[in-house]
Design goal:
The structure is a single chain. By secondary structure, the chain is of the alpha+beta class. It folds into three domains: 1-196, Arp2/3 complex 21 kDa subunit ARPC3, CATH 1.10.1760; 203-278 and 291-316, no CATH class; 326-472, 2-Layer Sandwich (Alpha-Beta Plaits), CATH 3.30.70. 68% of the residues lie in helices and 9% in strands. The protein has 16 helices and nine strands. It has helices at 5-26, 39-51, 56-73, 80-112, 117-146, 154-183, 191-195, 205-228, 242-251, 254-275, 278-316, 326-343, 357-364, 366-383, 407-419, 448-464, and strands at 29-31, 34-35, 347-354, 389-394, 397-403, 423-426, 429-432, 435-441, 470-472. A five-stranded mixed sheet has the order 4-5-3-8-9, with helices on both faces. Strands 1-2 form a two-stranded antiparallel sheet. Strands 6-7 form a two-stranded antiparallel ribbon. Helix 1 (5-26) packs antiparallel against helix 2 and helix 9 runs antiparallel to helix 10 (254-275). The structure holds guanosine-5'-triphosphate. Guanosine-5'-triphosphate (GTP) is lined by residues 320, 353-359, 361, 366, 369-370, 373, 395-396, 463, 467. Its cofactor is Mg(2+).
């Protein structure tokens, strides 16, 4: 790693941000060694996730300085040597857990990029949960090593510690990932994760603010009720927050959903601090983690819907010619038939096959053959009416559905298409395409498959008649 003035400035900015976030968290300490909400955990996790081992030193320095800052804020006088020892132990405990968990999480997330968004979410949640748990244990061990005289009740310490780190990581790491990408814009590999989580439709800022207000109002009602009515079960009403949060997830961009989660988590911490509700703090933080995890899975839904749409389009479109596939043509035909039967209108079907197409392939090569197929499909698309349908039957055979045309009208259409088939240019030579056509009109209650068989018979007759002909079936 070469340290340029620019990278030095970036690392310094990161350390300053870490300390600022840390200061905000310790304001919400509700139990010795446990912040109600510990966003620096999210920042360290995000840093290792994106920067890998390059985050080791800056995270260590930030954690080291925060311990010294804590001693400075604390009125207890502790020797400088003791302060340094604690700072080193805490720094190590922090970087071991977050370095290991965050870097591994980053590795697995990058492997999954652009492929499976729900899988990326559970990788994030799994590693986030395990890393914060590891950080809790390594932190408590560091606490003991830093001052063996300190009486720590492990059983009452680990859960509030873990849940604070967990909330800080689950809720804040996604925001910090974006912040870190702003500090290190060259981390472009990661922008894909956010691009693919964009909701298809984004509402106005005002609508978003209204949703945020509803969320905050509901939180205020729960908090005040929990504080004023002597019923501990009321704290569980905080799970209702998942309703407005999911409303935001489904109707806003992922960025807004993430911002809303961060604001809610900050508001919960502030309310608990303001009303002195440390007894229910854990319930609120657990609820927040569950709401955040749900919200991330919810974000995958618009993304999956978009992917589905793309797959559906690929499924119904012929890759070469861009017209619809045989299967989709049949499905559309079934729908048209139902409508036309109701309206008592005729429907006709053409099937045509390019003449001596094999010779084109054999003489000029498959790419010229492909070009001929594309030209034929595009030309037919232009020659038919808006309500007509053209599809590829397979190979060099095409289908055209003609609603509101009876057999003689459809025959005339086939003659017109035959006449106007395109000419392709090969090595400066003009090569006119010709085709043979089979035409039928749907009979009452006739199934599409039966109609296709009749049209194919007519096509074969057109071929036998010498090609470049139109044959009809009665
Ligand atoms: N280039 C290209 N060729 C294809 C494609 N699909 C099928 N073919 C070829 O199209 C040819 C179809 O030939 P046929 O319809 O059996 O016969 P033909 O030479 O057109 O003769 P007639 O239909 O009897 O006039 C075969 O040589 C296939 O290999 C494709 O997507 N691209």
């Amino acid at each position: 790693m070469t340290l340029t003035p620019q990278s030095l400035a970036r690392y310094s900015l990161f350390i300053a941000l870490w300390l600022l976030v840390w200061r905000l968290s310790v304001l919400m300490e509700y139990q010795p060694h446990a912040s109600l909400w510990f966003p620096p955990a999210g920042l360290s996790f995000a840093a290792f996730l994106l920067l890998g081992w390059r985050a080791l030193l800056p995270v260590f320095i930030a954690s080291f300085l925060s311990t010294l800052w804590m001693y400075w804020l604390d009125s207890n006088i502790v020797s400088i040597q003791q302060q340094m020892t604690s700072a080193i132990w805490f720094g190590f405990a922090h970087i071991i857990a977050y370095g290991f968990g965050g870097t591994l999480c980053g590795y697995f997330l990058q492997r999954e990029q652009r492929q499976n968004f729900p899988k990326q979410i559970y990788i994030f949640l799994l590693f986030g949960g395990a890393t914060t748990l590891l950080a809790t244990f390594s932190g408590i061990i560091a606490l003991h090593l830093a001052d063996p005289q300190l009486q720590i009740n492990f059983m009452t310490t680990w859960l509030p510690w873990w849940i604070g780190d967990l909330a800080g990581t689950f809720v804040m790491a996604p925001i910090f990932i974006i912040v870190i990408m702003k500090i290190w814009p060259q981390l472009t590999d990661w922008t894909g994760i956010y691009q693919q989580t964009k909701a298809p439709k984004v509402t106005s800022k005002n609508q978003f603010v209204v949703k945020l207000l509803v969320l905050q109002l509901l939180l205020a009602v729960v908090m005040i009720a929990d504080n004023s009515l002597a019923n501990p079960a009321l704290a569980f009403a905080v799970f209702f927050l998942s309703l407005p949060q999911m409303w935001i997830v489904y109707s806003e961009s992922s960025w807004r959903a993430i911002v809303s989660l961060a604001l809610t988590s900050l508001a919960i911490a502030l309310w608990v601090g303001l009303l002195g509700m440390s007894d229910s703090a854990i319930t609120y933080q657990f609820a927040l983690c569950v709401i955040a995890a749900n919200a991330y899975f919810g974000m995958a839904v618009p993304n999956l819907a978009q992917q589905n749409q793309v797959l559906y389009q690929q499924n119904i479109t012929d890759g070469l010619t861009g017209i619809i596939t045989r299967q989709h043509f049949i499905e559309c035909t079934e729908k048209v038939l139902k409508r036309q039967i109701l309206n008592r209108q005729p429907v006709s079907l053409l099937i045509f096959d390019l003449d001596h197409f094999k010779t084109i392939n054999d003489t000029y090569g498959h790419s010229i053959g492909d070009e001929a197929l594309v030209s034929a499909a595009q030309a037919i698309k232009k020659l038919i009416r808006e309500g007509d349908l053209v599809g590829r039957f397979g190979g060099d055979e095409f289908l055209v559905l003609l609603p509101n045309q009876n057999l003689s009208e459809a025959e005339a259409t086939a003659q017109r298409l035959k006449r106007d088939l395109p000419t392709i240019e090969v090595n400066g030579l003009q090569l006119p395409l010709t085709a043979s056509f089979g035409v039928i009109e749907f009979q009452a209650h006739e199934q599409v498959q039966q109609a296709l068989i009749r049209a194919d018979d007519a096509l074969r007759r057109a071929k036998h008649l010498g090609r470049n002909k139109v044959a009809t079936a009665p």
